[in-house]
Amino acid sequence: MSEPVKSRTASRLLGVDATRGVALLGMMAVHSLFESNPDGSPTWSFAVFGGRAAATFAVLAGVGIAFMTGRARVKARDAGPTAAALGARALVVLLIGLVIGYADAALGAVILPYYAVLFVLAIPLVYLPTWAIAVAGVAVAGGVPALSHVLLAHLPAATLENPTFGYLFHHPIALLSELSLTGEYPAVPWLAYLCAGLVIGRLNLARVKVAFALLVSGVVMAMGAVIASSELLNRMGGLAHIWAAQPRSVLTIPETSEMLRLGGDGTVPTSSWWWLATNAPHTSTPPDLIGTIGSATGLLGLFLLLGHVTKPGWRQVIAVVRAPLAAAGSMTLTLYTAHIMFLNSDYDVYDSTTGYILQVAAALLIGLAWRATAGRGPLESLVSAAAKRARRWASRRRTRPAPPASVSRLPDGWRPSPFPRGPDGLPKRADNEALARESS
């Protein structure tokens, strides 16, 4: 590989990791800082990161899967090893999520078990062409929220607690329902994020035109979702319909107001179809899904574009800012787990702002130190090792050696001919040229 190609690949990976690092800091802000001001309006941190940070994680998970599968459609011969690798990733992520699931969900809902379901749902997607994945993503973003709206009344009510081993063994069906459709980060509608990430990951992210297209399309999607939601709720009377149906809602009047301002816990009430027009965070409505896909796509495009800046002064500033973000972004599983454990420990004795600043500083410094010394994060290494072992196991089962054929003893130096033979045992001459073309 030539040096320019290596440089472009490194810049692409740094851009992806830096985007993931911003998402990590954003999720930490959502967990550590206040959601609302005294008047009930969202704080600046929640207005910026609420719903968008988690969505960016999910989109980048799709990008990572695209990288893992060679940025191309998985061939039939690699179906088993790829499925085994993704299944192993899902299992290890699920186990880590269940281990830290004993944390208080009020301090931070653990997203990892939902990610495990997403990895399983990604298995059939990697065998599809890129255009089919894009179509599937559009269908999920537009159709699954409506399907969920119909099914919610017939599914077990979500506990909205962090899943644990005990809940897994005692209520497996209810847990699967919560992880898939009714929980904080429902995997089935969130499949739209994974589809978007797979499509993006198959693009040539080292090109300036692709980075610019991601930035522009992301901004258009994010702004378009906000405008469409506002038109539906305000000019077309969606809010009036929601309030008219409020007596049939499971929410009280203050809870309805809070959901419209600050968002929900993965779903919206089924009292009115107009709820599907809101773009509030964590509501899994079409405007919410499309808008947060747009913000994730635009942020990734921005960091990819920054990698192409050539002016020396600006390039140095960008490198200084991007390096710690990318270092933290390369080990988000480890740092996210540490963040959840810290929030639930006796060491978190700080006010919200001080605690958040300390966590950000620790994440950036640990990321830089770990990347410079050990490389990949410890939990990332665990997941990667499990995936590689599963892939090797599946590959060995696929390539079992054929039993040796019995061969009669032949004279030394004799080589079989690929061409037909006549009664005298010599190769026929008539069709030799055609057969040679077929065998080449």
What's the average pLDDT?
A: 88
- Uncertain segments: 406-410, 423-440
Terminus-to-terminus distance: 29 Å
Q: State the helicity in percent bands.
A: 55-70%
Give me the number of helical elements. 18
Q: What structural class is derived from the secondary structure elements? A: mainly alpha
Q: What's the Cα radius of gyration?
A: 26 Å
Question: What is the string of helix and strand elements?
Answer: HHHHHHHHHHHHHHHHHH
Count of distinct strands: 0
What is the makeup of the main sheet?
Answer: none
Strand content: under 5%
Describe the secondary structure blueprint for this structure.
Elements: H1 3-32, H2 44-49, H3 52-68, H4 79-99, H5 112-125, H6 130-151, H7 165-170, H8 172-182, H9 187-201, H10 208-235, H11 238-244, H12 253-262, H13 286-306, H14 312-329, H15 332-343, H16 352-373, H17 378-398, H18 432-439
Brief descriptors of the model:
mainly alpha, 18 helices, globular, disordered C terminus
Verbal overview:
The protein has 440 residues and is mainly alpha-helical. It has one domain (3-398). It is 66% helix and 0% strand. It has 18 helices and no strands. The protein has helices at 3-32, 44-49, 52-68, 79-99, 112-125, 130-151, 165-170, 172-182, 187-201, 208-235, 238-244, 253-262, 286-306, 312-329, 332-343, 352-373, 378-398, 432-439. The longest helix has 30 residues, at 3-32. It is globular.
TL;DR?
By secondary structure, the chain is an all-alpha fold.
